[in-house]
Write a structure and sequence with these properties.
Structural class: alpha/beta
Largest sheet: 6 strands, parallel
Strand order of the largest sheet: 1-4-3-2-5-6
CATH architecture of the largest domain: 3-Layer(aba) Sandwich
CATH topology of the largest domain: Rossmann fold
Number of helices: 11
Order of helices and strands: EEHEHHEHHEHEHHHEHEEEEEH
Oligomer: single chain
Number of strands: 12
Radius of gyration: 22 Å
Strand content: 25-35%
Distance between the termini: 30 Å
CATH class of the largest domain: Alpha Beta
Number of domains: 2
Length: about 300
């Protein structure tokens, strides 16, 4: 997949098959659009183009609102789209000036003059342009004028289980990782650098890697203990993840700490990818360290059991 950080880098194609949107999380609804995009590209001998935006439009247009948490960082989204087989990804810098562009200007100046769109695929209820004035009807009206066709993916194909980024965020915030993963179509991912922590886990016999997520907009699921697949240098390991404040030792700051089973390497400064599989319990404050240690033993047994049940 070729990635263009500005639209000026994109030099045009013979037959671009295009879709547009934020595609945060690249969930099952997005995947339905991308599947159709690829089908059309194969049928027409064209190439797929996805036009997305950064920062997220809401961050620019409503900066005083509570910070919107994203399902995927920029790099995670790029990786997810590459896995979906997108040929070309254009990341358009979103600004207030761009938001004031009329729908006709967007169609003419961006979709036609910059990208050369031959076929446009959009999800149902898709809106664009100043004050979200543009719609499928608008595109169908102007398509013949500017020489492109447009296809709308019907609601039943995109939203058969009422998939939305909002519902996925709500599931994650509640710690309901199974629901979130069902909507996403893959395990939710947290990526970050291993940094120095308080080394409490080491004292308990369960050393942990303390993960620092660089992107402050990344949504971190609700506190609790999760079973995770840990990816380090393209190798996979079993792990149990704690998200929370460590209340048993009167912790205050929230941390992300993963104990990697059967692993003993110095990985400070390294990058880890955590794929969350299931939450096994909420965060608890235990009477003493011994009871916490006993619970960690049970958590480990549960982690091994879940991996065994899933054939890993």
């Amino acid at each position: 997949m070729k990635v263009y950080r500005t639209i000026e880098e994109f030099k045009g194609l013979l037959f671009p098959v295009v879709t547009s949107g934020t595609f945060d999380g690249v969930h099952l609804g997005h995947q339905a659009i991308l599947k159709r995009l690829k089908e059309i590209a194969v049928q027409s001998g064209g190439e797929t183009v996805l036009l997305t935006f950064f920062p997220h439009p809401r961050m620019v247009l409503f900066p005083d609102e509570e910070v919107l948490k994203m399902l995927s960082t920029q790099e995670e989204k790029i990786s997810l789209l590459e896995e979906q087989g997108v040929d070309h990804l254009i990341i358009y810098p979103f600004s207030k000036e761009f938001s004031r562009m009329s729908s006709v200007q967007f169609i003419r100046d961006v979709l036609v003059n910059k990208i050369g769109t031959k076929k446009l695929v959009i999800g149902y209820n898709h809106h664009f342009g100043r004050n979200r004035e543009g719609s499928f009807l608008h595109l169908r009206e102007f398509g013949p004028v500017y020489g492109f066709e447009v296809e709308e993916i019907p609601a039943r194909d995109v939203d058969s289980v009422e998939i939305s980024s909002t519902k996925i965020r709500q599931s994650l915030e509640a710690g309901n990782i199974l629901s979130a993963n069902t909507f996403l179509g893959y395990p939710y991912v947290i990526s970050g650098e291993v940094v120095k922590g308080k080394q409490l886990g080491r004292k308990l016999g369960y050393p942990t890697a303390n993960i620092q997520v660089q992107d402050r907009y990344k949504l971190i699921p609700g506190n609790g203990v999760y079973v995770v697949k840990v990816t380090y240098r393209n190798k996979h390991y079993k792990g149990m993840l704690n998200i929370g404040t460590n209340p048993t030792v009167n912790g205050v700051n929230r941390s992300i700490e993963v104990h990697i089973l059967d692993f003993n390497q110095d990985i400070y400064g390294e990058q880890l990818k955590l794929s969350l599989i299931e939450r096994i319990r909420s965060e608890e404050k235990f009477e003493n360290i011994e009871k916490l240690k006993a619970q960690l033993g049970k958590d480990r047994e549960k982690t091994v059991q879940l991996f065994s049940e899933k054939g890993n």
